[in-house]
Amino acid sequence: MPELRKDPITSRWVIIATERGKRPHDFKKSEEQIVQVGICQLCPGNEHMTPDEIAVYREPGTAPNTQGWWTRVVPNKFPALSTEGDLNRSGVGMYDMMNGVGAHEVIIESPEHDKPISHLSEKQVEEILWIYRDRFMALQRDPRLKYILIFKNHGRAAGASLEHPHSQLIATPVVPKRIMEELEGSRDYYHFKERCVFCDIVKQETSTKDRIVMENASFIAFETYAARFPFETWILPKKHDSSFHNIDKTQIMDLAKIMKGILLKIYGALSDPPFNYVLHTSPIKNDCANFYHWHIEIIPRLTAVAGFEWGTGMYINPTVPEQAAVSLREVDIEAARS
Amino acid sequence: MPELRKDPITSRWVIIATERGKRPHDFKKSEEQIVQVGICQLCPGNEHMTPDEIAVYREPGTAPNTQGWWTRVVPNKFPALSTEGDLNRSGVGMYDMMNGVGAHEVIIESPEHDKPISHLSEKQVEEILWIYRDRFMALQRDPRLKYILIFKNHGRAAGASLEHPHSQLIATPVVPKRIMEELEGSRDYYHFKERCVFCDIVKQETSTKDRIVMENASFIAFETYAARFPFETWILPKKHDSSFHNIDKTQIMDLAKIMKGILLKIYGALSDPPFNYVLHTSPIKNDCANFYHWHIEIIPRLTAVAGFEWGTGMYINPTVPEQAAVSLREVDIEAARS
Prior knowledge:
2 copies of one chain form a homodimer. By secondary structure, chain A is α+β, with helices and mostly antiparallel strands. Helix content of chain A is about 25%, strand content about 25%.
């Protein structure tokens, strides 16, 4: 009998195919790889091919937009939203629109073209997390912006168009629908229980351990109970905080460790699958400090989103989360690296 | 300047890239085709390869599960939900679950393996629509069910695994999230305006005509104002009704005509792209008769859903809906057929 599971935050129901669960080797690797044509505009030496850097960690004494950096942020060449202009909210007949004001940045994760986060040093992953935080701090001063989203697309099926490892930041002039849903769901839970739903999840998961894949002093990485996708993995900070930018140095070190570890396990178990990860944090004007809890959602892209999902907002997950957790726990990190 | 547009039903914001709009020829056809291996289990003569038919239109005198049918409905061999059993709602620690009770059926659209809906006769498309309606009428008597979804996946990138043209029906024991959002949005609009938002859309679109692609006595087919995807096309009945199953004979004939026409235009403009369509109708227990309005959403699958979309529930659409409408209007239906 398949199982319907409800996500406790958004009340989204998911169909889990418990009987004929798909294991890692059931997912055939997509043939479509990104073929890098010509030189890579994100590689060292090609800094002139990108717009000027807006944040960077580089060797002392090296000039901006030259070699010598180890993490570098540049505006997206083809931005989804424009940094210039006013919102000008207006009506078009019965419809509503506003100008596409916001920010769209590319975070070049390291100078190494061939090394995904899972294969970088912990130190380098920390640097990526620090520069994420820098961009949050800088952009939240812009009064036109309501939300800052940091995410990563890896592999063509996950929407990446460049091979060189990079993350993206998009800042929007509205609080997006998905975030509103999380805020409403976690606010309702808080009103009912007077506890943060995410803190309760941390407690539940660390006590049963069925779905936990990795854990350290500051974070758990686990297969979420109502996972929409096979091997959907969430990373939750153990300490309650609604906003990623409040992260401290110890937490950055622990987050780098667990991110690298979990991405290496996914890389190993599923043969470098396409994936997305998304950093979920509070809106800029934060009135959800008590009940919201920042976290990271990692989604390997192994199944097609089809008519059923578009029509219902429900998902059919052919892999049981508890079995996915077993598979990922079994991956030897050292073996996966090679 | 990109444009943010708001869907008037769900209040979902969409980013429309107005400056560098993608035209039909900018979408490269995906290389991944469905390769049918061995014999087709949905073809005439192979009726023994499917579960027994549960609805069928066939030549008088022919036996069930033999040749002689022109539309045939069978249970899905690997159902996402099971027709047997009780819901048994229960708690698992802090989480909620229920048994995956429901229905999952395959609607074989015609005996012809190579003919998509766009290439069938109008008469045959009518038969498909009638059998959709039959299944609604039959399943809504099951008290365990709350919602019936009919949808189609065409092409591998749209989630299809069989080549033979077919639609699917999934009946769920909960009202899905996406439907709840539509109901809430259209209820709010009704409370505010005392009018149906979809009826207002019909009026707006037929008066401006910017986004209309086809129109007949009963339906309009148009590029929706806040389209999430390039060439996202909606078909709306002009007459207000919340439920598809109230459709009458004249409307079936007009719907067959416009469905076939619009799918042929999409086929021609985008070289037989992968697509989904979804029939949106009221839940079984219908208390939304005044404010909800059934319709069909057609989504060509030309762009990847990536981290931004997963993180925000917002979409970036690289094609301006008004330009998509021009492109589709220009397609000569007779030329597209060959």
